[in-house]
Amino acid sequence: MNDILKRNNVQLMGEGEQYMIFAHGYGCDQHVWSDMVPAFVDDYKLVLFDYVGSGESDLSAYDAKRYSSLNGYAQDLIEICDALQIRNAILVGHSVSSMIGVLAANQRPEFFSKLIFLGPSPCYLNKGDYHGGFEQADLDGLFEMMDNNYLGWAQALAPQIMANGDRPELGETLTTSFCATDPVIAQQFARVTFLSDNREDLAKLKLPSLTLQCSSDIIAPLEVGKYIHNVLPDNRLVVLKATGHCSHMSAPAETIAAIRNFI
Q1: Where is the AB hydrolase-1 domain (predicted)?
Q2: Which of 22, 33, 39, 108 reaches 20 to 30 Å from 101, CA-CA?
């Protein structure tokens, strides 16, 4: 158990009976939840962690084969829940962690009671009638720029992902997080994230879920939020006034209120 908790730098806080797990998105770590934690720490037992390759996780545990698909990251989440003997937790997943949560919940539904998606996407590519927001050429260009100059890519893209240009400190925070990630791991995780198609996995989800969709998001357009809402029989879609891809950082009060209203 201790090996797993150390591997993923698992942090526990709060005195509540029900677990609430916060799962960060690509290029981030558990510190992105700092504005969310105070709102829930009195009522829930909070679990924060870093995926292997992120934050203060054990980089020596990174296995390129294991993490060549989102299933490897879902296995991390499952092993954390197993180690802590978690049942019926609320999972809050940002971006790619939304689908990682879906994969984990489909395998081990007893671990979770509700899933909360922040800026989710089951498929980033436009495919047929499905609008994911990206063409293959877009992603090829993104990957090429990452491979040629990862730090330059991070410095250029992170502020666009964050949006909220009137508050440049938000973009700077995300840029710092991106730049702190191991470039080789970040490049593989980007390909795994953006090339995944989890629409079939999403359709198998039986648990209640909440989709929090920002009103303007270059990573997860509104059409994707509507798609998720239409596919899942027990999903609530809330379109936030917040813009960008990281409402938990740019608009924590609005995000917290929407989560509280759901749970």
Answers
A1: 21-257
A2: 39
